[in-house]
Structures are given as structure tokens and as C-alpha cells.
Amino acid sequence: MRLPNIYAHKNLKWLIAIPLVLMLLGIYFSFQIPLDSSLRGGVSILLETNTNITASELAAKISSFMHISGVEVSRSPGGFQITLPINQSLAEANNYLANFYAAQANYSTAQLNYTSLSLALHNSPGNATLQAELANATASMNKAMRQMQENASAVFAALAPFGIKPGNYSIPQLQQALQQAYAVASKNYEDKLLSELQQIVPYTSYSFEEVTPTLGKYFLGQFENIIIVAFVLVFISVFFVFRTFVPSLTVTFGAANDMIIALGAMGLFHIPLGVASIAGLLMIIGYAIDTDVLTAIRILKRNEGSAEERAYASMRTGLTMTFSAILSFLVLFIISLIVYVPTYYEISSVVLMGLIGDIFTTWFGNASILLMYKKRKERI
Question: Strands of 205-211's sheet, edge to edge?
């Protein structure tokens, strides 16, 4: 079937409006994206078992027996991989522990400053400026010390459900005491989980991994940095090829808009943002750059036929590539639903949404912008 040449019409601005509307919708729904355990914190348990039970049935049993919501279970070689939300008490203790470390760093800085000022004042007795700075350093030390003690008390209070009791520790002893208390509480929680899982699904061996909320925030921050660096590199690379800003911005916009549409779909369909879906988002950048650069080169650097005909030829080639990729990830998506593999589900669903968005962004938006830019250059 031969597709009509949409670029033969004069109202290209109406085509550009479609990806812009999708971008606005994507931004709106992206604020509703849930975070999975790899970013919000959680526990991953790999069990080796021969039990004849499906992943969905096991997830339901764990939720019912252990009174935990948000349980994820997937098949793994020889058993199951189980993901549970982070224990609330451990999460609170971890946050207070992070605050303790921050206060400890402030205390060390103030102490070093106090020592330096004391030596300076010893060499210059009666110096009013040094005396004032020394008083400020003393106040900073006292404030940091109070914050350390308050957060240490909060850590012990949060860990109380695990049998952890506070003690009388000096400032130098507090860090080691808190680390040991958290380690004991984590071990107690691990033993409790494994004991309850043994009653639900007997297993022969296991591996246990905990991701704290602090580490999850770090992963999320690193993802944001990676995205920023990726788009900067994309812009520089495309600018090196075309040596003008409009094509470079257009290609970069195409990749960004595909990602925004995918993020909006994640929020709309409640697909969690995690390590797997982040991998899918990064894949979208690659697919978007592929079709966008193909279109820009044919429209701007080729001379055969008219610009509209070259854009149409690019669309036919690009749609063939995109629909092939959609078919591949659709198969992966269906398989992930049948065998219940959350990782494959997140990757395939995110890439599918991005590829569908790429159809509108590239062929309605980018191609139209490049055609308008090409005609403007020809008139000049």
C-alpha cells in the first residue's frame, strides 16, 4: 500500500502541532510515574526452588501472608526473583543515618576551623576578629554536635522494632555504634523475611540484596546526569555534521520529545521508573537519533528530486525501520506478560511507547521543521 505524501500539502505547521500536543500531555502525565524498588529502595531476594507455582500466584501469597503491598515476583533460572518494598523502619533509620553523616561532616569542618583559629589566636592574643571567628566556630561545633545526637537518637528509635536499644556513646563512638545497630537490624529483618518465605515456598538456597532509599536517590541523580550528558553529546555530534543550529536543535528535540512521550505513557499506565525502564529510555534516544538524522541528511544534503519527495522517501524508509522495531518489542512485551517478567515488561513497554511517539515526532514534527527550514534557505 502506498502512503500519501503528507508533505505535498502547504500547511506543514498543522503537522508540527501534533508532536507538540503529545509533548505537553507527556509532561503532564510524567509527574505521575511511580518509582520501583531500585530507585525508591527495596529488597531483592533470589530463591532457588522446585516448587510448582506461577510467579503471579507466589506474589499474591506473599502479599497475603506477609501483609506487604507492592510485591513483584518473576521467574529466574532455577527459581524466583522476589522484590519487596523497603521496610519503613529501616528506611527512616537510613534517612536519619544520612543526616547524622552530614552533621558529622559539619562537626569535623567546624572542629578543624576551631583548631586553626585557636592557633592563630595564640600567636595573636587579643585579636578581636579572631575571637569573633572562634566564637562562631564554637557555636557551629555545638550545633553540629546537637544535630548528631538528635539524629543518633532518631536512628535508635526507628530501629527499636528490631530489638535495638540506645546506649551511652561518646561522639567518636556514635558512628560505629549506629552502623552496627543498622547492620543488626537489617540482619534481623532479613532473617524474618526468609523465615516467612520458607513457610510460603520452600527453597534450597537464596541471595539477598537490599537497596536503601539513599542509594535509590543516588541512582536517580546519576540517571538525570546521564540524560543531560547524552543530549549534550547528541547536539554536539549533530552540529558537527550539519554545522548549523536548526538541524541540530531539531534532531535533539526529536529525541527529547520521544522520551517525554514515553515518560508520559509511563505515568498514564503506571509503568514504574527503575533501572530496567531507564535502559528502555536510553534505547529510545538511539532509535530517535537514527530516524531524525536519516531525515535531516536526505532533506538537507541530498539533491535528487524535490525536498518534499526526499522527505516522503525518508518517511517510507523510517517507518519500515520503526515498525520492525515495534514488532520486535511487541513480541517481547507479550512474552513478558505471559511469563510475568517485570524487567522485560518495563523495557518493552517503555520502548514501544517511545517508538510510537517517534512516528509523530519525526514525520509530523521534525520533517516538517526541516522542510520549512530548507525552503527558507532556498528563498534566501
Answer: 72-76, 79-85, 42-48, 205-211
The range of the structural domain enclosing residue 204 comes to 41-87+193-211
Helices (H), 201-271: 213-242, 245-268
Q: Tell me whether residue 1 is in a domain.
A: no
Which three three-digit cell numbers place residue 130?
Answer: 579572631
Residues 312 and 338 in one domain: yes
Residue 171 pLDDT greater than 80, yes or no: no
Cα–Cα distance, 148 to 154 (Å, whole number): 10
Instruction: Report yes or no on 295 lying in a domain.
Output: yes
* Residue 361 and residue 288 in one domain: yes
Query: pLDDT, tens digit, for every residue of 23-71?
Result: 999 999 999 888 777 777 788 888 888 888 888 888 899 888 888 887 8
Cβ-proximal residues to 204 (8 Å cutoff; 6+ apart), any chain: 48, 49, 50
Q: Please say whether the beta carbons of 84 and 197 come within 8 A.
A: no
The count of structural domains within the chain is 3
Residue 62 to residue 341: CA distance in whole angstroms = 17
User: Which range (14-23, 74-83, 98-107) has the least confidence?
Assistant: 74-83
Q: Cα(288)–Cα(270) distance, rounded to whole angstroms? A: 23
Residues 146 and 50 placed together within one structural domain of the fold: no
The CATH number for 311's domain is: 1.20.1640.10
Contacts of 187 (CB under 8 A, 6+ apart): none
CATH number, residue 72: 3.30.70.260
Closest CA to 373 of 279, 251, 271: 251
What are the cell numbers at 105? 561532616
Q: How far apart are CA 176 and CA 261, in angstroms?
A: 47
Cα–Cα distance, 217 to 39 (Å, whole number): 6
* Sign of the CA dihedral running 217, 219, 220, 221: positive
Q: Are residues 230 and 256 in the same domain?
A: yes
Burial class (CB in 10 A: 0-12, 13-18, 19+), 214: middle
Residue reference for cell 534566501: 380
155 and 46 belong to one structural domain: no
pLDDT for 181 equals 92
228 and 343 belong to one structural domain: yes
Q: Over the chain, what is the mean pLDDT? A: 86
